[in-house]
């Protein structure tokens, strides 16, 4: 899976750092682990041309990363620009960007529509809400403290769900003809599967597909879009750095 592979790469980097090999590679002895963490984005310039940051790494790294190479779009400045009217982020977070791209590619109107985003994470929910607002949708964010979540969701023309709760959104939550983008990917036990589990989304697919006009599958829906948008952002970064038009 996309996130798992990236976590493994980052974990290998952390092992190098903890073991002291990273300091040898960088030919720079740093006095504390904190300093090491702060200096990684600066010294990685010698090793990598582009930096792809995973959000679960330390906040100090996130703040220190070069914004021109923040192809994940998680830097606070990029998020701030995304939230502001009249400002453009250097990069848009990949998964929300992929969600909007899906709507565009299938000619699904957004302007003036009611949109509900389920989940308010910094990775998907919050930037997805910002992007929908930029498309002139009327946006409501549903989260763990929201009262009457089912009633609110039932009013939506567009639903983007990213909460990590298997089959949370039932068919009764969905307005007839609504468009659903299911970002959730959750393992559930399945004795008939060779792996002992199968992957499902936040949306109860079998129920929702009978009501919705369009719905993304899990797996194979948003995941490939996330990877495609990451590659798109990386290419954009390369073009900017090397002044390619």
From TrEMBL:
Gene3D superfamilies: NAD(P)-binding Rossmann-like Domain (3.40.50.720). Belongs to the tetrahydrofolate dehydrogenase/cyclohydrolase family. It catalyses: (6R)-5,10-methylene-5,6,7,8-tetrahydrofolate + NADP(+) = (6R)-5,10-methenyltetrahydrofolate + NADPH. It holds the Pfam family THF_DHG_CYH_C. Pathway: One-carbon metabolism; tetrahydrofolate interconversion. This is Tetrahydrofolate dehydrogenase/cyclohydrolase NAD(P)-binding domain-containing protein. Residues 93-240 form the Tetrahydrofolate dehydrogenase/cyclohydrolase NAD(P)-binding domain.
